[in-house]
Amino acid sequence: MNKYHGRSTTVLRPRTAQEVSAIVRHCNERRIGVVPQGGNTGLVGGSVPVKDELVVSLGNMNSVRSFDDASGILVADAGCILQSLSDFLLPHDHVVPLDLGAKGSCQIGGNVSTNAGGLRLLRYGSLHGSVLGLEVVLPDGTILDQLTTLRKDNTGYDLKQLFIGAEGTLGIVTGVSILTAAAPQASNNIMLALPAFSNVLPLYKEVKRQLAEILSAFEFIDRSAYDLAVKHGQGRALDEADVAGADCFVLVETSGSSREHDEQKLYKLLEDLMGQEPSLINSGVLATSPAQFSSLWAIREGLTEAVGKEGKAYKYDISVPQDKFKEVLDITREHLASKGLMHDQAVKHVVGYGHVGDGNLHLNVVANAYTAEIESALEPFVYELVAKYHGSISAEHGIGVMKTHALPYSKNAVSIEWMKKIKNLFDPNGIMNPGKVLEL
Ligand SMILES: Cc1cc2nc3c(=O)[nH]c(=O)nc-3n(C[C@H](O)[C@H](O)[C@H](O)COP(=O)(O)OP(=O)(O)OC[C@H]3O[C@@H](n4cnc5c(N)ncnc54)[C@H](O)[C@@H]3O)c2cc1C
Questions:
Q1: Could you tell me how far CA 374 lies from the centroid of its own chain?
Q2: Contact 433, 37 (CB under 8 A)
Q3: Cis status, amide bond into 195, omega within 30 of 0
Q4: Model confidence over 46-84: pLDDT tens digits?
Q5: CA–centroid distance, residue 402 to ligand 1 (Å)
Q6: Centre of ligand 1 from the C-alpha of residue 364, in Å
């Protein structure tokens, strides 16, 4: 994003939890701020120092500690890159129950600390369910060992849940125990072009009804986002004929145990959709080869990069009712136009994409440059809009440094008060990732 810059002079790269503990203890005694850093792919500035805090980078803690192919339970160092864990699991016929566009750089510790959602939450649920245990270095240097591999453990407060999504403000995650899933034997995808956004939800219902247990992703891409992906060479564009008249697109993925069975279901779905009068879709492209499968995904996964190449992006990762996605995009566009900001020298595009199944819209305002005028037009406007729909100002990216001031739009005063009490209990000296999640 290139939006946040710190002034740290020191980055330490420990190899063990004991080394992390020694660093943190030293910092706590001297009131030195510490910023845990994973793959640095976060989109809200959480891993960037606010001032001159010391950075603890987890990249050297990158070993798999154990894997049990009967239970599917994986225990790994927090610095393992998500893609390496997927590669490790491949020959064992298992997959990490999490997938995102940044998988080549983000780390499992960073994923846990941001409670990352991603492309397959629809299928595997959230990390609050699949993470079984954590090893965490607390702000006073104590190592909290909760690296259990038990699926059932009702022995009082489930402390690990506090660190999932804490964005490094309560401690440094050094080890993760996670329940992985049996690898699907067959995955397929299909890109559908829709004439109108109002067809997205009826389509979602129909897709769920027909694909049921094999549905693993249902991703929405609006027309402007698709055009940016194509412009910046992400994936192979659909044919002109398939795109003509499309208002938006939906990428559907299936993951099952029999290719033949899944393909039959997809062909039938496509046939039924095309046969309807009026049809919910204009056209559909079914991947017929692994290369085409990857290429269709590349359009969706390449959107963040495409937006970054097009200009400076104001990113809003919000939860709103699924039927309001387009309304949010339209209202934001109209609002910016009313301020005279919708032109090439100010805001070039307002684009939207996201995880329909999870009610998560990525609203991206792509500008020529970051300016105070655009920012004040967008905030608190977008947050007020989200609050009006009783949504969340951060569906999956977290609060980081970017949204601390906006927390009250999604959390009431009592909740924030208790968050502060918890922070103070774990970190009375305020050394752990200061200025993130809660305002300084
Ligand atoms: C192309 C692209 C696509 C993306 N797609 C998605 C998506 O679909 N879904 C989604 O949820 N996010 C997505 N993201 C955002 C980002 O990848 C996730 O938030 C990811 O989980 C961050 O992991 P990381 O290792 O890079 O963490 P970092 O960016 O290094 O850190 C993120 C936060 O976690 C803290 N942290 C990191 N490691 C630790 C640790 N070991 N212990 C304690 N705190 C720690 C940091 O201090 C910081 O507050 C995307 C980003 C990009 C660039």
A1: 25
A2: no
A3: no
A4: 999 999 999 999 999 999 999 999 999 999 999 999 999
A5: 14
A6: 18
* Closest atom of ligand 1 relative to the 43 alpha carbon: 15
- As beta bridge partners, residue 94 has 182
Whose Cα sits closest to atom 11 in ligand 1?
Answer: 116
252 pLDDT above the threshold of 90:
yes
Residue 284 beta carbon below 6 angstroms from any ligand 1 atom: no
Query: What's the CATH code of the domain at 342?
Result: 3.30.70.2740
Task: Say how many domains are in the chain.
Answer: 3
* Cβ of 78 less than 6 Å from ligand 1: yes
* Euclidean distance between CA atoms 33 and 429, whole angstroms: 9
Q: What is the DSSP string of 78-108?
A: TT-BHHHHHHHHGGGTEE-S---TTTTT-BH
Name the percent of the chain in helix, strand, coil, to the closest 5: 40, 25, 40
Q: Which atom of ligand 1 is nearest to the CA of 109?
A: 41
Q: Which residues pair with 76 in a beta bridge?
A: 64, 176
Please indicate, yes or no, if residue 52 is contained in any of the structural domains. Answer: yes
From 129, 145, 136, 134, select the one nearest 177 (Cα to Cα): 134
Last residue of a domain, one of 20, 42, 58: 58
pLDDT tens sequence across 303-361 = 999 999 999 999 999 999 999 999 999 999 999 999 999 999 999 999 999 999 889 99
What's the CA gap between 71 and 277, in Å, rounded? 47
Q: What is the average pLDDT value for the chain, to the nearest integer? A: 95
3-state secondary structure of 191: strand
Q: Which pLDDT score is estimated for 234?
A: 85
Predicted ipTM beyond 0.95: yes
Pocket test for ligand 1, best of 96, 114, 394 (most atoms within 8 A of CB): 114
List the domain range (segments joined by +) for residue 31. 11-58
Backbone angles phi, psi at 316, to 5 degrees: -125, 120
Same domain, 195 and 255: yes
Tokens of 258: 């029999």
Question: Quick check: 181 pLDDT over 90?
Answer: yes
End-to-end CA distance of the chain: 23
Clarify whether residues 236 and 320 are in a common domain: no
Chosen domain end from 303, 335, 363: 303
Retrieve residue 143's tokens: 């190592």
Cβ atoms of 182 and 96 within 8 Å: the answer is no
pLDDT number for residue 7: 87
